[in-house]
UniProtKB/TrEMBL annotation:
Family: Belongs to the eukaryotic GSH synthase family.
Catalytic function, reaction form: gamma-L-glutamyl-L-cysteine + glycine + ATP = glutathione + ADP + phosphate + H(+)
Name of the molecule in the record: Glutathione synthetase
Record: residues binding Mg(2+): 393
Keyword GTP-binding recorded: no
């Protein structure tokens, strides 16, 4: 059985045309912001696959089932500043972003917290892994990373998933060669509906409701504030969330990072966050601050820091809080893979369920594990099985395999401890067609499943330390990105990563597709 099905030239051309029309009419687009034409809108489509990529139903379900325990873990770690400082101390010494964030946290702690709720909008990313020595075995899930700040792609995936289901119902996927040949995707339940847009907006709405009425004197209305990148090109992934909130009668506004935050917001004497939209004379009180930026070091100049400090100091519920932001650092992920680490917050059953998805990770410090990792990294032969990662977000920072040794030789050794070394995940190769800014592609592909976990938790102070108590949680939702198997990174902006949706199949079908 071949998948994707073989299409005639005519069918292929029609599919490309159908996809382009869907992209334009549904906003599968990146905005070209640096164009000076006033009377037009210039965009570029985001990369997309033509067909849903085959994915084992069992692993799709398993990834969803893991999320409640990951939510519990990442909420707990975000309230455990003692453990976090221990893990991040080395990084804070050499990394400007970690130190900027830790300084802001320390200042807020010094002032005293006025909000004990935090909203987590997480995305836990997995690849399938097959042990290269046992290629006949079924693949298992391995976590690539868990993102805690500005998790993107939810709306793009939603649009592509809807597109694939639409194309399926029109018969566009029916192979013409040979006529009436068997079609792998027959049941609509093989193409799971995507509700990521609804999930994210419902999470923000739940936090907005939990905040309650305005508390500042003379203020009657509350609103959600999105903190976004100036010159934002990814509006198609953000705006629909805002529109969905307005549809629920929740006012939602956007403020670009930096001086605009200081111009348009202020703190009341009791630290409510007040926002003055340009369109209104009255201030509104901000219930939730949702960061869609703020993870790049260049954003933390004096103005950027003042803005983030003001937001963090306020009574608004943050998504994420500074500590929750820091839990997404790769250094934290690596520390959580240490034997016994998870049991600090989880039951043994939860810990063993999550740790099965961890690929081996090492620090590059002076501990014995760090010394071992340095040996692995400096020998190009062993290094070929690893990825070197800094604690940075946004993509494009990793160093892969054979390049690691040379990279480290050109990096001052005192900076090595800001990196972690992760064993390469060895994904099964599937087939698909893709279209992105790099052009049209047909061939082997690798997919990455993201699970969106949305939860609201409360800090419960217990003497000097604090714990997290989950207040509410939504059913997780998913994203799928797929890339050409010959590239290491997954950048959507560079056109490597394409949005996708899974065609869920049983193991026998999946294994025969992988072997074919
Ligand atoms: P970030 O998204 O913060 O840049 P990631 O850890 O997600 O960092 O890595 C970026 C991309 O690199 C991933 O999307 C994945 O395609 C690839 N990658 C990361 N870790 C591994 C790994 N251990 N094995 C194989 N590929 C990896
Ligand atoms: Mg990533």
């Amino acid at each position: 059985m071949t998948y994707p099905p073989r299409l005639s030239d005519e069918q292929y051309a029609a599919l490309v045309s159908d996809i382009k029309d869907w992209q334009i009419t549904h906003g599968s687009l990146l905005k070209l912001v640096h164009t000076d034409e006033e009377n037009t809108v210039q965009c570029q489509p985001v990369g997309t696959t033509f067909f849903p990529t085959l994915f084992p139903r069992a692993l799709f379900d398993e990834a969803h089932a893991l999320q409640t325990a990951f939510n519990k873990l990442y909420a707990a770690v975000a309230e455990d500043d003692e453990w976090l400082l221990d893990v991040l101390r080395d990084l804070i010494e050499v990394d400007d972003l970690a130190s900027a964030l830790w300084e802001i946290y320390s200042e807020v702690k010094e002032e005293g917290f006025v909000q004990d709720l935090t909203l987590g909008i997480f995305r836990s990313d997995y690849m399938m892994h097959v042990d290269s020595k046992e290629s006949l075995r079924r693949p298992e899930l391995k976590q690539v990373e868990l993102n805690t700040v500005s998790c993107a792609g939810g709306v793009h995936t939603n649009i592509v998933s809807d597109m694939h289901r639409h194309l399926h119902r029109t018969g566009a996927y029916h192979s013409a060669q040979p006529p009436n040949s068997e079609n792998l995707i027959t049941r609509s339940s093989d193409l799971p509906p995507n509700s990521t847009l609804k999930t994210i907006s419902a999470g923000l709405a739940a936090a907005h409701k939990a905040y309650g009425p305005a508390k500042s004197q003379g203020v009657t209305e509350t609103c959600i504030l999105f903190i976004v990148a100036a010159d934002n090109f990814n509006i198609a992934d953000e705006r629909p969330i805002e529109y969905a909130l307005w549809d629920e009668s929740i006012p939602s506004y956007r403020v670009p990072w930096g001086h605009e935050v200081l111009i348009h917001t202020s703190l009341s004497p009791t630290r409510e966050l007040l926002y003055r939209p340009a369109s209104r004379s009255n201030a509104m009180e901000v219930s939730v601050v949702y960061f869609r930026t703020g993870f790049e070091i260049y954003e933390y100049d004096d103005i950027g820091r003042m803005g983030r400090l003001q937001l963090e100091n306020s009574r608004a519920i943050k998504s994420p809080s500074i500590l929750s932001h820091l839990t997404g650092f790769k250094k934290v992920q690596q520390a959580l893979t240490a034997p016994g680490a998870l049991e600090r917050w989880l039951t043994p059953a939860e810990a063993s369920m999550l740790s099965r998805t961890f690929a081996p990770m090492y620090p590059l410090d002076d501990t014995s594990s760090g010394q071992h990792a340095k040996k692995l990294a400096l020998d190009p032969e062993t290094a070929s099985n690893y990825v070197l990662k800094p604690s940075l977000e946004g993509g494009g920072h990793n160093v892969y395999g054979a390049e690691i040794a040379a990279f480290l030789q050109h990096t001052p050794e005192e900076l090595w401890k800001s990196y972690v070394l992760m064993e390469k995940i060895n994904p099964p190769l599937l087939q698909n067609f893709m279209m992105s800014s790099r052009g049209l592609y047909e061939g082997p592909v690798i997919s990455e499943l993201g699970i969106f976990g949305v939860c609201l938790w409360k800090r419960v102070q217990n003497g000097e330390s604090a714990q997290a108590e989950i207040v509410s949680e939504l059913n997780p939702s998913w994203s799928l990105r797929t890339k050409d198997a010959s590239v290491d990174e997954m950048s959507v902006v560079k056109g490597y990563g394409c949005f996708d949706s899974p065609a869920l199949v049983d193991w026998d079908v999946f294994m025969s597709a992988v072997k074919a």
